[in-house]
Amino acid sequence: MKILITGFAPFGGEAVNPSWEAVSRLPEQFQTSKGEAAVLSKHQMPVSYNRCGQIIEDFIRRELPDCVVCVGQAGGRAGIEVEQIAINLKDAQSPDNEGTVFSGEPVTQGGPDGRFARLPVRDMVKACREAGVPGRVSFSAGAYVCNCLMYHVLELIEKRYPDMRGGFIHVPYECGQAALHDKIKPSLPLATIADGLLACLKAL
Ligand code: PCA
């Protein structure tokens, strides 16, 4: 099984993004819990509403993976959160890394309001927790760039790659990053975030 996995570049004044740091640490090859050989192809995504869709589309077209798993940072969340749904909305006060701000705009004009993940979200969360890493199913990926990327991936799958699976996982701050903030927010060690992600992927 070929898995295309992405993490994001740092944003919002942070020096690192734990999604990319954790994805970088994952082994390139492993066995799933069903004994299938899995190979990872890793890419870093820019925090850009306007470019993320085209970039993931190019990766998918070039690599034709069996599964696409995008990962992003959700500062303030306390564990690994496998997203159930992407919504057709771009709406956040913070600009992306290109200075773009959206308020109440659709990701795709005329698209459905929401698109469900095409991943075994509950099995993934179960595997994560059994590996000793806190996790849960999340019912909101927000309305910023992560949700936008997830919506694009699911739209591409629906329109062009019906046999492909795909979805999104949010991860918390990593401890070293959180330690730089004056206000204490939940965090996990980077190695633990990577362990949780790997457990999720083994459940695919
Ligand atoms: N998290 C942001 C965008 C990039 C990232 O890692 C989000 O949750 O939308």
Task: Describe the structure in brief.
32% of the residues lie in helices and 25% in strands. The chain has 204 residues and is an alpha/beta fold.
Give an overview of the whole structure:
- This protein has 204 residues and is α/β, with parallel strands linked by helices.
- The protein has helices at 18-25, 49-63, 121-130, 145-160, 175-178, 190-202; strands at residues 2-8, 29-31, 37-45, 67-73, 80-83, 85-87, 114-116, 135-138, 165-171, 173-174, 187-188.
- The strands form 3 sheets. The protein has a 7-stranded mixed β-sheet, sandwiched between helices.
- The protein starts with a strand and ends with a helix.
- Pyroglutamic acid binds next to strand 4 and helix 4.
Percent strand equals 25-35%
N- to C-terminal separation?
A: 9 Å
Mean pLDDT: 98
Largest beta sheet, briefly?
Answer: 7 strands, mixed
Task: Work out the radius of gyration.
Answer: 16 Å
Kindly state the number of beta strands: 11
Order of helices and strands: EHEEHEEEEHEHEEHEH
